[in-house]
Write a structure and sequence with these properties.
mainly alpha, Four Helix Bundle (Hemerythrin (Met), subunit A), two-stranded antiparallel sheet, 7 helices, about 55% helix, about 5% strand
């Protein structure tokens, strides 16, 4: 299964976010483009998201069975290590034989594991930009990951603001590049 293009993009997205986490330094309290979230809040969110993957994909648990296990601070005293362990666990769970063929229980119902993998990868791409902006790192995203995230989010981007987790789209200039279109579609101001 390691030759899967989806798994390659997933690994690249987690690797991109990991590089930004390792660059945080002492800026854990810095604000991010995500309203009300500090760098620590953002990394905590992505870390918790990765912690869910083995439970849902490998163990086949439902949201109710996992419960509130990952509510609150999952970073502890070593946020970088917490992130890296969670990312490795998610990567390993998706790479198991047959993992992408399973069905997982998400907040909006049963979903193909492959779709879940795609969503988590695309989320990591966009949040890598958020983290880059927050810590003053290079904000350019790899074009292949931008195209991947655009393809993932475009079909349902219009419904995301209603979830309360995404801002309203921001207009972008005609002829804007793919990264700008991705970010503005998801309420970011590049």
């Amino acid at each position: 299964m390691t030759g899967s293009p989806l798994l390659a993009r997933h690994a690249e997205a987690l690797g991109l976010f990991s590089s930004r986490v390792r660059a945080v330094g002492d800026r854990w309290d810095a604000p991010t483009p995500c309203a009300g979230w500090s760098v620590r809040d953002l990394v905590d969110h992505l870390t918790a998201e990765q912690l869910w993957v083995p439970r849902l994909v490998r163990e086949g648990l439902t949201l109710a069975q996992v419960g509130d296990r990952y509510d609150g601070d999952v970073l502890g005293d070593d946020p970088v290590t917490a992130w890296e362990r969670a990312a490795a666990g998610a990567r390993d769970a998706f790479r198991e034989e047959g993992a992408l063929d399973r069905t997982v229980n998400l907040s909006y119902g049963d979903t193909a594991s492959a779709a879940y993998c795609s969503q988590t990868a695309a989320d990591a791409v966009v949040h890598a930009w958020d983290l880059s902006r927050a810590i003053g790192a290079d904000e350019r995203l790899p074009p292949a990951l931008v195209d991947f995230a655009l393809a993932e989010f475009a079909p349902y981007a219009g419904s995301l603001p209603a979830t309360g987790l995404f801002a309203e789209p921001v207009p972008s200039a005609p002829g804007a590049d793919a990264q700008t279109r991705l970010l503005t579609m998801l309420g970011r101001r590049p």
